[in-house]
Amino acid sequence: MANSIGNGFNEGAGKGRDMTSRYLDLLSDKFDSEEKVVTEIINLESILDLPKGTEHFVSDLHGEFQAFQHVLRNGSGNVRVKIHDVFKHRMTENEISDFAALVYYPEEKLKLVKDQMASKQALNEWHRTKIHHMIELISYASSKYTRSKLRKALPKQFVYIIEELLYKSDEDTNKKSYYETIVDKIIALGQAEKLITGLSYTTQRLVVDHLHVVGDIYDRGPEPDKIMDTLIDYHSLDIQWGNHDVLWIGAYAGSKVCLANIIRICARYDNLDIIEDAYGINLRPLLNLAEKYYDDNPQFHPKQHSDIALPEQEKLQITKIHQAIAMIQFKLEAPIIKRRPYFDMDERLVLEKVDYDNQKITVYGKTYSLQHTCFSTVDPDDPTRLLEEEAEVIDKLLLSLQQSEKLKRHMNFLMKKGNLYLKYNGNLLIHGCIPVDENGDMEAMEIDGSVYKGRELLDKFEYYLRKSFSNIEQTDDLATDLVWYLWTGKYSSLFGKRAMTTFERYFIADKSSHKEEKNPYYHLREDVEMCQKMLEEFDLDPVSGHIINGHTPIKERDGENPIKANGKMIVIDGGFSKAYQKTTGIAGYTLLFNSYGMQLVAHQHFNSKENVLKHGADALSVRRVVDEEVERKKIKDTNIGIRLQEEIDMLQKLMSYRYIR
Ligand SMILES: O=P(O)(O)OC[C@H]1O[C@](O)(COP(=O)(O)O)[C@@H](O)[C@@H]1O
Ligand SMILES: [Mn+2]
């Protein structure tokens, strides 16, 4: 379940005492002398006193790898801030930007400079200066870390050399030429570029200690797989699943309806490459079915994501696939709704509500005409029955999906690092919401004969999601159905709306039918007391804690404020997703939480990599202080601090148990 830290030792009970001495015996294998115990205690105690590391929060990445990696490489502007701190009296703003660009994209920048330099000698000189600047920058950026932590962040092949340069002593006199020789030799041996590249990545790593991804890595954008690969390599992170992420987890875990959804969304956003090329899933059977039953249909044209128009033939093919998989999805929803009455989704039995003779539908008590229908595989007498071909196609797709090694790796990582919510350093991180009613009371949901609400309900959801993931051959058990419920159900903490109107959005012109009513959480979260109540529900301190949400794009353009309830609630979905930037008016929010407090960063737009390289780094992110710490926060005030303190307590016990008689 979501994190909680406890030492697991019960001093009072006899059994606990046995456990403790067994643990201490084990511990004494590692710390087999008094000196080793003492050294470790001193080491841990001094770590507790260091300033807390910087946490970096991002959310709603939606497959936008380029924008994401830019934010990651510049630490939401943090790299530039550090460069500015060190070099403001020695460099112009342009030089600072240029140096920042080198730190973000060292390989490309080095190549660019090499191509521009007039002579080898000039290039060597440039390398020499940059090495010195990098060492200075790293020395500053690492000042709140232990030496051992810094060592882990250094490029392996150069650790010894860099440490010599970092911990210079006696520079003015005896060793001056020694340090100069080191740098000269690096250049002479052709290692300068490698070293500068390594130092750049070290800097990127030092400015952010820990990353939180508050959900929605997948869907809409073109490269979620590259985001996943980047996250897998990242030094320290956690993930709070978004509704789109659980849709992918659900598909991998055996939910055919989740699978139909992910393919439908990929078709809708012209991203079928993710399915076919990135994950190697064979779409041929689906294409054959689509060609047989469907034609052009403007409602199912893919959304363009680049300025280059799609070739007509390709567009037509995607349009057909889009319809084929959407109809399979609507059919697959029906049996789940029927076998799980407590999902309370009868209104979503849409295919059964259609009047096929008159092309009309009655939903939520209102009758609408249908347009652009594509019901050629629907039997009006049994509208939700899959054709044999459709059943075969979805089975084949599932088989192919579950055999994708890359997807397996990515989904395993999502499960390993992910939770439905996370309590971290006193804050509650959650993608969507905590379902509440208009009075602000936790909403209850029945699952399998028992009723759950608030934190208990979320824990139950996570329990079933993990269960489904560990039985991927099960396709219609409760656990698998509940993963789909998390995507679209009324009391889902990830969806946060009463119903998803996908069918209406495709087939009904009247936009009032498209509206998706939000959970009252979304207006109640403006209220300080309500936020405090929710923090208490999760055993967090209502005074110092914050809730950090993603999921709902903040319409900055319309004056909406991402900082709500006096700073208790921070919503960081600003629209990495290009598809949503029109609505939000900005290009994404990120949040930084360092030892001085919390700052929200609003990114005005993400410069393309090429632009950053040619014209220097973008200075366009705007920072807003959310909360300032009265006293600088130290590691001892954090989650990690609590764990370290427990280790110290244990070592102290070991001292008296073993060594002090
Ligand atoms: O913009 P699209 O592609 O029609 O998607 C709309 C759908 O996405 C959702 O907003 C869910 O996605 P988000 O988590 O990104 O909001 C649904 O509620 C809605 O039906
Ligand atoms: Mn979302």
Describe the structure.
The chain is α/β, with parallel strands linked by helices. It has 28 helices and 17 strands. The strands form 4 sheets. The protein has a 7-stranded mixed sheet. It has a 5-stranded mixed sheet with strand order 8-9-12-14-13. Strands 4-5-6 form a 3-stranded antiparallel sheet. Helix 1 crosses helix 28, helix 2 packs antiparallel against helix 28 and helix 5 packs across helix 27. The chain binds 1,6-di-O-phosphono-beta-D-fructofuranose and manganese (II) ion. The site of 1,6-di-O-phosphono-beta-D-fructofuranose (FBP) has 10 residues, from helix 13 and helix 23.
Q: Summary?
A:
It contains 28 helices and 17 strands. The protein has 661 residues and is of the alpha/beta class. The strands form four sheets. Strands 7-3-2-1-15-16-17 form a seven-stranded mixed β-sheet.
Bound molecules: 1,6-di-O-phosphono-beta-D-fructofuranose, manganese (II) ion
Main sheet summary: 7 strands, mixed
Based on the structure, what is the oligomeric state of the protein chains?
Answer: single chain
Helicity, as a percent range: 40-55%
* Structural class designation: alpha/beta
Coarse morphology:
globular
Radius of gyration: 28 Å
Spatial strand arrangement across the major sheet: 7-3-2-1-15-16-17
Q: Can you give the mean pLDDT?
A: 92
Distance between the termini: 41 Å
- Secondary structure tally, helices: 28
Poorly predicted ranges = 1-13
| Strand proportion | 5-15%
Number of strands: 17
Keywords: Carbohydrate metabolism, Hydrolase, Manganese
Pfam family, one: FBPase_2
Family: Belongs to the FBPase class 3 family.
Enzyme class: hydrolase
